Structure prediction request, 242 residues.
Amino acid sequence: MLNQKNIRKIAGQYAEMDAFFAGFSPRGKSRQSLCIAEPQTDLSQDSLEKITGEIETCRLCELGALRKNPVPGQGNPNAQIVFVGEAPGADEDEQGLAFVGRAGKLLTDIINAMGLKRENVFICNIIKCRPPDNRDPRPAEIIACTPYLHRQLALIKPDVIIALGAHPARTLLKTEQAIGKLRGIMQDYYIDDNSAPIKLMPTYHPAYLLRNYSYENRQRVWQDVQKVLEYLGLPIPKKKIN
Ligand code: URA
Prediction:
C-alpha cells in the first residue's frame, strides 16, 4: 500500500538513483531529509490558493531554485475536465502559466475543437517548475511534486482528467506502459485508496503532435477527446483538430 512512509522511502530511493546516475541531489537536503509535499488529508482546510502559495516557496527539489516562476496551473476551479501535462517550458517559466508556448497554442486549438474554451477547463502539469533545458523530469522530482497535483485534483474533482503524454499518464496511473498503448482507452485514476475513481483519458502530448504532425496522429488525439466528450454527454463538434 502506498502510504506516507512508503512514498518517502520510494522518493528517497529515487533520489539516490538520480544522484547516482545524474549527479543530482536535492539542494540542501540529505537523502534522509528528502521530504515530499504533504497530501492534505483534511480537504476542508485545503484550497487551490493554499497549494499555489506552497508551490511558490517550494524547495523540495532543485527545480525550485532554478525556475524563474512556478507554474501551479490555472483555469476553472470547478472544471469538468482537467488537462495534465508534463512540466513547464521556457514560455511557461517566463509567464508562470501552464501551456502558453507553441504546445500551449495547439492545446488551445484542441480545447476549442472540443467546443470549449480554456477558461472552461483547468490546465496544469505534474511538475510545477521548469526542468533546465526542458530535460525530462527526474523520478525524485515527480515524486516530490505530484502531491500538489493530487491535492489540486482532490479539490477540483473533475469528471475527466486528460493526461497529455507519457509522464502524466504513467504517473497518475502508476504504470510503466507506453503512451501508444495507453492512449485512447478511458482509465480510472484514484486520488487515494479510499477515493472514488475519476475517469482519465491518456492521449498524446501536444509537443509530440507538433514533432510528429501527421494526419493519423491528429486523428488519434481527436478520437481520444471525442471519447471524453461522449462520456460527458457533451456535443461533439464536426470540426477536427487542424
Ligand atoms: N509542456 C507541458 O507539458 N506543459 C506546459 O505547461 C508546457 C509545455
Summary: The domain at 4-232 is CATH 3.40.470.10 (Uracil-DNA Glycosylase, subunit E).
